Amino acid sequence: MKYNPAKVFLIVIFVFSSTSVLSSVLPDSLLSNIDENISYKIILIGDAGEPAKDIKEPVLQGLKTEASIIPESTLVIFLGDNIYSNGLPAEDDPDRKEYERRIDEQINTVVEAGAQGIFIPGNHDWAQGNDECWERIIRQSEYINDKEIDNIIFLPISGCPGPEVLNIADQIRIIILDSQWWFQDENLRPGPSDSLCSFCTEEEITGALDSVLNASQDKLVVIAAHHPLSTHGPHGGYFTWQDHIFPLTNLNEYLWLPLPIIGSLYPLIRGSGVSSQDIASDNYQNFKIKVESVLSKYSGILYASGHEHALQILEGVNDNIYVVSGAGIWGHVEKALGEGEDTIFAGRFEGFVSLNIFSDERIQLNVLRVINENGDTQNVFSMWLEK
């Protein structure tokens, strides 16, 4: 899937106080001429695990509308962090019903649209790596899969790392990775001695991924994982002046206490890789390097992730495309989002990414922004991809 500059319509660059956008907004006259014969739609949405309680979650409303266009031929992939902030607790937990509500709203959105849905794990679903993390990820997978809802599934099961492979029609292959497996302590994830997973070591995972990609070069390949391979938000080391001057707003949005010198320590510490969930960390670098070493052998791949609460389209290794779609909750977006040499699009607002696959095998990537609490959406970026 090569990024072809001739097929991207760059119209204008918007800079708002709440938005940093390198945007190719298609004019209505151009949109009206696009072939409407879509044979399949894939919607990518991440970090939707804390839907609003007082209103119907706007992002999920927008998702339902998009998924209802051709529901029988639409697949929604939830890219992890499906239940904030520590996954699904035991049934006797006093807050269990609230956490069930959070995942049920996402499930019901897909069911009501009549579409198909896949849920994959994120670091919050793994309870951020605490002692109960493996139990919680198994508990979530069983909660979803035991519902036995047609066309709704959680993968991989049992805390396994994948890759899991799903073939959609003849020309689409979905490859699912549990990226958080790479960040877990070895005693808090399935390994060879547990006999639960087809692949239990990093070498087996990357070898299997290589084999699948080698056999998929005539298909549209979407790799779905939680952790991005590139990002220009806080997980990638980008921070704003506010983080340096008012660092306590990262804990509470109302704590506007100026700490100009002490505040600069926060970005510096994050940038040093102290958190395993930031790209600068050794664990993250290990994951990134080993996965990209496989991706660098192939082109025509779309790697989709969440984790960063923003919407980004980036140019990946060997002309592959990286999608970061982690803005699945209204009002839950990053304060900081920059642009790098690999940036094709960057948007600091709520929404999700969709792929339209046309009957003539053209592939259109769209970024949909949710513009209000009613869940109305606006297509703010479109580009054509090549297999």
List keywords for this structure.
387 residues, alpha/beta, Purple Acid Phosphatase, chain A, domain 2, eight-stranded mixed beta sheet, 23% helix, 25% strand, disordered N terminus
Return Rg in Å: 20 Å
Number of structural units classed as domains: 1
Range of helix content? 10-25%
Low-confidence stretches: 1-35
How is this structure best described in words?
By secondary structure, this protein is of the alpha/beta class. It has one domain (3-237, 278-385): Purple Acid Phosphatase, chain A, domain 2. Helix content is 23%, strand content 25%. Strands 1-17-16-15-4-5-6-7 form an eight-stranded mixed β-sheet. Strands 8-9-10-11-13-12-14 form a seven-stranded mixed β-sheet, covered by helices on one side. Mean pLDDT is 86; it is low at 1-35.
Fold topology:
Blueprint: E1 3-8, E2 12-16, E3 19-23, H1 28-31, E4 38-45, H2 58-67, E5 74-78, H3 96-113, E6 116-119, H4 133-145, E7 152-154, E8 164-168, E9 172-176, H5 202-214, E10 220-224, H6 241-245, H7 260-271, H8 282-295, E11 301-305, E12 311-315, E13 321-325, E14 343-347, E15 351-358, E16 363-370, E17 377-385
Parallel strand pairs: 4-5, 5-6, 6-7, 9-10, 10-11, 11-13
Antiparallel strand pairs: 1-17, 2-3, 4-15, 8-9, 12-13, 12-14, 15-16, 16-17
Short structural summary:
With 387 residues, the protein is of the alpha/beta class.
